């Protein structure tokens, strides 16, 4: 709860700083504020508490994920300094929107009442609609915002209707009352309809098959820094929330629905990876790769009792690798109109450091050892085996192999092809380099000592 | 005083809400005019609101009605954003037909 209040105060403070003409201090102050919020979140990590009539329930789960979100936001805010250089007069809006995005994610992850869940989800989504369409001079950004808005509110409608049915069946929005009511055999059977509708809405938000079709378009059209926040912060928040909801209703949902979800997880992995093979735009490729990663993270749903730490580890590994990759993409594609993979030709010679970081980020996503991505996959597969879902492991391994192909396509372009044009060197790209290096170092540190993360739960 | 909900029966409210919700879903799937799609989203959200209010009365519990206030605020914010994006699109392509948005492909 302290985290939430601190973050809300920070977001308002940013807007006030703009009014009193301290625009230059916004980014440094925000980073300091976020570090303080991280401290608040992390220091009382062992205390279980519920606040405000059980609206917000702080558990180890919510605190760990909140910390992850805050770290991701620190990276995003640091990159905003240079990314919004051309429209610096609007920097306070962009930064405060990023903090509101974070508030939505924290609400979603620590809800104890379905009201809070819905409000958090909507804060997250509405902020992302604005950020996706935040470059109104470009038709592509507008189109991305429009598509995301239509499909996002469509999904919100499903979630709201599901919540209404759950309320009708259990007479409460409170999670404790609901989990008691679902054990009662007299609960009306439209509760299951409600649970299915909420799950469908959340599958939309994590971009799982068959609700994935918006993701590539939206990721491609949005400004790159928004794409980075969508594929890390929003995706991980939605995934962790789906995990939490699934854990509550797990005893209630039928065997057939579990089988359906297993099939969806497998198909999501395949669709993401196979479609990614033929993309020539790197943002679009990462969108499809994000879909397949959502499929991997769905493996955790089938062992909700033991897979919390594994899901967190995978999500953190994926987010840090994504942040590093997107930082390099922004730095390289700054002076191009689009983000074609061919722009990366010869990067290995022109700027070996950036090429190395992007290589490491892609290797982590592909699941090559040393990097945390490998151990993330390993732990998830292990949790699937514990719950007896061998098929998930088999298809997961096949998909890891497929994904290596398109990640290496980019790496190949960087090292074995000649450059077609000079890399534009600007004195501001040190921010991107620092962010990318820090993110990839975090990733490698997680890979070197995975137990230190797993033991936090 | 006799409760009108008991005379009509809660099932009929559920059927009506599901019907309205389906109208909204099909509106989004079949109509290509952005304004009509916005209206369909509103119908979906209002179907849920109707259901919440009906259940709130049925359980004699005020939580559902409070939730509806939150939903209405959220729906208003959502449509405000949507219309802003739509105005920006109209300035570019001079149309609000969703099928004309074909710049993003892979």
UniProtKB/TrEMBL annotation, chain A:
It catalyses: a quinone + NADH + 5 H(+)(in) = a quinol + NAD(+) + 4 H(+)(out). It is found in: Cell membrane; Endomembrane system; Membrane. It is a multi-pass membrane protein. One of its GO terms (molecular function) is quinone binding. Its main location: membrane. It is an enzyme of class 7 (translocase). It holds the Pfam family Proton_antipo_M. NDH-1 shuttles electrons from NADH, via FMN and iron-sulfur (Fe-S) centers, to quinones in the respiratory chain. The immediate electron acceptor for the enzyme in this species is believed to be a menaquinone. Couples the redox reaction to proton translocation (for every two electrons transferred, four hydrogen ions are translocated across the cytoplasmic membrane), and thus conserves the redox energy in a proton gradient. This is NADH-quinone oxidoreductase subunit N.
From TrEMBL, chain B:
GO terms for biological process: ATP synthesis coupled electron transport. It is an enzyme of class 7 (translocase). It is found in: Cell membrane; Membrane. Its EC number is 7.1.1.-. The keyword Oxidoreductase applies. It catalyses: a quinone + NADH + 5 H(+)(in) = a quinol + NAD(+) + 4 H(+)(out). GO terms for cellular component: NADH dehydrogenase complex; plasma membrane. Keywords: Cell membrane, Membrane, NAD, Oxidoreductase, Quinone, Translocase, Transmembrane, Transmembrane helix, Transport. The keyword Magnesium does not apply. Belongs to the complex I subunit 4L family. NDH-1 is composed of 14 different subunits. Subunits NuoA, H, J, K, L, M, N constitute the membrane sector of the complex. NDH-1 shuttles electrons from NADH, via FMN and iron-sulfur (Fe-S) centers, to quinones in the respiratory chain. The immediate electron acceptor for the enzyme in this species is believed to be ubiquinone. Couples the redox reaction to proton translocation (for every two electrons transferred, four hydrogen ions are translocated across the cytoplasmic membrane), and thus conserves the redox energy in a proton gradient. This is NADH-quinone oxidoreductase subunit K. The lineage of its organism: Bacteria, Pseudomonadati, Bacteroidota, Flavobacteriia, Flavobacteriales.
